[in-house]
Specification:
The complex is a heterotrimer. Chain A is built from 9 helices and no strands. The radius of gyration of chain A is 22 Å and the shape is elongated. Chain A is mainly α. Chain B is about 35% helix and about 25% strand. A 6-stranded mixed beta sheet of chain B has the order 6-7-8-3-9-10, sandwiched between helices. The N and C termini of chain B lie far apart (about 40 Å). The relative contact order of chain B is 0.17. By secondary structure, chain C is an all-alpha fold. Chain C has a single domain (about 1-220), classed as Orthogonal Bundle (MetI-like fold). Chain C is built from 10 helices and no strands. The chains are: A mainly alpha, B alpha/beta, C mainly alpha. At the A-C interface, helix 1, helix 3, helix 4, helix 5 and helix 6 of A face helix 3, helix 4, helix 8, helix 9 and helix 10 of C.
Chain lengths: ~230, ~250, ~220
């Protein structure tokens, strides 16, 4: 057996790959579900917090800043472990899936609040004044004049951050979520062969690489139009 | 109506330790064009911004077209429709077309349908000579055109008073004329206007009254001929001779 | 509640274990941040050669690691390589994974910084006789770094947080040690303590970043 054949036999073993393909695919489904949940809830919550913050209620804003800072400071894996292993002590036992979802959603909420807020504050004062001088209310000005301009500024940092956090779904494997990495790891230990792991790695590339490329394209387009 | 359309009394404004307005009284009659001059930091812009409450006066009273602007029961957004404002830096919404800029408040505040608002918006753009630019975004317009769109945005709401806050200061010299032209035609149509500006030639030709402000107070006022030819106060004289030297 | 999440006796008992983890997290960060910066610098300098044959593969390299979860990379090295007869140990795997992953991120940031420096700067430097590399390192890079300082700081913060992945491959950093202490005491207090340590350690950087990024609110 040549060394290439031995390499292929070990890392690209088609028999093993075929056997565990269904497992990996079911992992892909779980990863997509988890990622979609995290993105939708995290960004929605972040936008809601940024809008709340614009109302300028002092104690509320302090609370928002502290929560945002907390989830920007903590490593996502620490949050996951804390929720998964910590909450059972108070008789709440979230599943690994729920723990991962909540943790990543909180982290994305924190980062997207910060990004939305930076976008809102970057809109010039004159825009508020012009809109208010024509009789638009605070809310109307925010919705029709300020947010549309803020969104343009937020898209590049928000997509980058969302991709980075969504990749974190792989962390779920630490708390027994059967997403891609979890499926690939258990397939590897069952088959004593690393091919499923390579298959899992490939699955991540197939899932995320197009998103990264699209994000880069959007970014350069927005940069030109400015 | 015989009473003044704008009636501001005893206006004071503090910014922290800074006392920017120190008891200003200003009455403006219907169809009058009042021109406010004075050195920078004299409180001219703050006075304008107190009239539509973009700035909250620390003390005093502002009545515009019979509405008490400082009364907490006043619907300020409704009242502001009657007071158009034009800014030094245009403040057009960059994400909207010229027509979008003009029609936003028509739809959101005046409650017009899109078709109605579009018709009124096009008419307003027509009045400032930009009927053919309705679909352009601010980035595609010159400074003078942007400022005329801003004027259209204000007049589309059919205000009773127009406030101009240094409308030509941010413009290249060759673009100033087109904006002044629009202001002149507005004046001829009988619009009540309060103008803060350094365009002394325009003041001489078009103003009914010139108000000179310094250090947060009105120093003197009168017809342009009188103020420019023989000001009574030393400070007015110094300011006018300095302006005219340039 | 306090008994289970912030038990004083357990804090005292587990402190030596957690403390050792903290120390390792600091040491690990001091290793992987320069390593990632070094990788990023190489990428950014290569990218400043505008030739398409260099630029496209580089972009693909960077995008690959932006798309690839760092944990998967780490597991691949840690659990996959032994099958090829290479057993590197958790620590070395973390170092390699960080060099690749965070290097790509740092590289992207530094490249944007270099792009933000006007071309006239290089021309001026070259006109005084500086070589390309000299112009790059002594004229362009200092300006580039200053222009993207918030992004560099933000990424460094992420790198330090990422060291928690070491716990998955048995590197005895803060999270790993805290989980050891948790399983010894059957109580989540050590993990809470670890979280508090992370927060106290990184909060100043988070605050500083917010200051750098946010202007004053213009409305209402």
């Amino acid at each position: 057996m040549s060394s290439w054949e031995r390499f292929a036999e070990t890392f690209l073993n088609t028999k093993v790959m075929l056997k565990y393909l269904p497992d990996i695919l079911s992992g892909v489904v779980v990863t997509i579900e988890l990622a979609a949940l995290v993105v939708v809830t995290g960004i929605a919550a972040g936008l809601a917090l940024a809008l709340l913050r614009s109302l300028g209620i002092r104690p509320l804003n302090w609370l928002i800043v502290v929560v945002v800072d907390l989830f920007r400071s903590l490593p996502p894996l620490v949050v996951i472990v804390l929720i998964y292993f910590g909450l059972p002590s108070v008789d709440l036992s979230p599943s690994g899936f729920v723990s991962t979802w909540l943790s990543l959603a909180f982290v994305l909420m924190a980062f997207s609040e910060e990004i939305f807020w930076a976008g809102i504050t970057a809109v010039a004062r004159g825009q508020w004044e012009a809109a208010r001088s024509t009789g638009l209310s605070f809310g109307q000005t925010l919705m029709s004049v300020v947010l549309p301009q803020a969104f343009r500024l937020t898209i590049p940092p928000l997509t980058n951050r969302t991709i980075a956090i969504t990749k974190g779904t792989a962390l779920g494997t630490v708390v027994a979520v059967t997403e891609i990495l979890g499926q690939a790891s258990s397939a590897m230990s069952n088959s004593y062969n690393p091919s499923p792991l390579l298959m899992g790695a490939l699955a991540y590339i197939v899932l995320f690489f197009p998103v990264v490329v699209v994000a880069r394209w959007v970014e350069t387009r927005l940069a030109w139009k400015r | 109506m015989n009473g003044p359309i704008v009636d501001a009394r005893g206006l004071h404004k503090h910014f922290g330790a800074l006392h920017v307005l120190r008891g200003v009284d200003l009455k403006v009659a219907e169809r009058e064009l009042v021109f406010v001059i004075g050195p920078s930091g004299s409180g001219k812009s703050t006075l304008l911004r107190c009239l539509n409450r973009l700035e909250e006066p620390s003390a005093g009273r502002v009545v515009v077209d019979g509405i008490d602007m400082l009364d907490p029961r006043t619907d300020i957004n409704h009242a502001r429709q009657r007071i158009g404002m034009v800014f030094q830096s245009f403040n057009l919404y960059p994400h909207m077309t010229a027509l979008g800029n003009v029609t936003l408040a028509l739809r959101k505040v005046a409650g017009k349908s899109r078709a109605e608002a579009d018709a009124l918006g096009r008419a307003a753009l027509e009045r400032v000579g930009l009927g053919d630019r309705a679909g352009h975004t601010p980035g595609q317009l010159s400074g003078g055109q942007q400022q005329r769109v801003a004027i259209a945005r204000a007049i589309a709401l059919e205000p009773r008073v127009m406030l101009f806050d240094e409308p030509t200061s941010a413009l290249d010299p060759e673009l100033v004329g087109s904006v002044l032209e629009v202001m002149r035609s507005l004046r001829e149509s009988g619009m009540t206007m309060i103008v803060v500006s350094h365009e002394m030639g325009f003041a001489r030709n078009a103003a009914d009254r010139v108000v000179f402000m310094d250090e947060g107070a009105i120093v003197e006022e009168g017809p342009p001929a009188a103020i420019f030819a023989k000001p009574t106060h030393e400070r007015t004289r110094a300011f006018i001779s300095q302006i005219q030297r340039h | 509640m306090i008994q289970s999440f912030f038990n004083p006796e357990i804090i005292v008992a587990s402190w030596p274990i957690v403390r050792a983890g903290l120390l390792n997290t600091v040491l690990l960060s001091l290793l992987v941040v320069p390593l990632g910066l070094f990788g990023g610098l190489i990428l950014a300098l290569l990218a400043s050669v505008k030739h398409p044959a260099v630029r496209w593969p580089l972009m693909a390299w960077v995008d690959f690691f932006r798309a690839f979860p760092p944990l998967v990379l780490l597991i691949l090295l840690f659990a996959g390589l032994p099958f090829a007869g290479l057993e590197l140990g958790g620590f070395v795997c973390v170092a390699i994974a960080f060099f690749l992953n965070t290097g790509a991120y740092y590289g992207e940031i530094l490249r944007a910084g270099i792009d933000s420096v006007p071309g006239g700067q290089i021309e001026a430097a070259r006109s005084t006789g500086l070589s390309r590399l000299q112009a790059m390192t002594s004229v362009v890079l200092p300006q580039a770094v200053r222009n993207v300082l918030p992004d560099l700081l933000s990424n460094t913060l992420e790198v330090v947080k990422l060291t928690a992945l070491g716990s998955v491959v048995a590197v005895p950093e803060l999270l790993y040690q805290a989980r050891q202490a948790q399983s010894l005491t059957y109580n989540p207090t050590p993990i809470v303590v670890a979280a508090i340590i992370y927060f106290l350690m990184l909060w100043p950087a988070v605050r500083l970043l917010s200051r750098l990024e946010n202007r004053a609110f213009a409305g209402p």
